Amino acid sequence: GATESFESLAADTTSQQLAGDLLVGTTYHVCLMATDAAGNSAQAAAYSFTVDTPVPFEFTVRTTGVNETYTLPLVSGYNYNFQVDWGDSSSDTITAYDQAEIEHTYATAGDYTISITGTLEALYSVGDFQNPPKIISVSSLGKVGWKSLEGAFTNAENMTTFSAGDTDTSKVTR
Fold first, then answer.
1. How far apart are the first and last CA of the chain?
2. Cβ neighbour number for residue 63 with a 10 Å cutoff
């Protein structure tokens, strides 16, 4: 496999985020070194990880009028850090449940496949009677870090197809 090296941490650094392009399918090996006040160094820990291919959450919404909006039903208390492709040649990066960009306007009526890649821990549409009926299908729940699917598709009465696809729901507790 490929071997990658990263710059040493400064003496007073307690953590460092790996930066740069990590290649999908590549296994990386990271060694953590500890140095005491006298300058003695020793390996503290060694880790290996492989970068997985992202598997997006994909679903299709249907709009029936011009300048119609769809709002992602995000909820407070969960982590969000994802790229959303709205299916009409536009995209946004979402990092907060109440960010303005969770609402998207479609210029023309039609079917749009929305694709989300990154961390999306929860959706909650209970009490929302505007947006869920626009969902007509889910083709994949994806691997986006789901923790709650409680009420995710409530009121989606026009959904005719649902496929979990290649997904990971092992951390779902609600």
1. 39
2. 19
Q: What is the pLDDT of residues 49-69, one digit of tens each?
A: 777 778 999 999 999 999 999
- Residue 22, token pair as written in the block: 């990590």
Token pair belonging to 165 = 């696809």
* Matching residue, tokens 């779902």: 172
Q: What is the pLDDT of residues 109-155, one digit of tens each?
A: 999 999 999 999 999 988 888 899 999 999 999 999 999 999 999 99
Longest dimension (CA), the chain: 71
Nearest to 81 by CA among 104, 59, 54: 54
- Eight-state DSSP code of residue 87: S
| Residue where the block lists tokens 């300058």 | 39
> Is residue 30 exposed (0-12), middle (13-18) or buried (19+ Cβ within 10 Å)?
middle
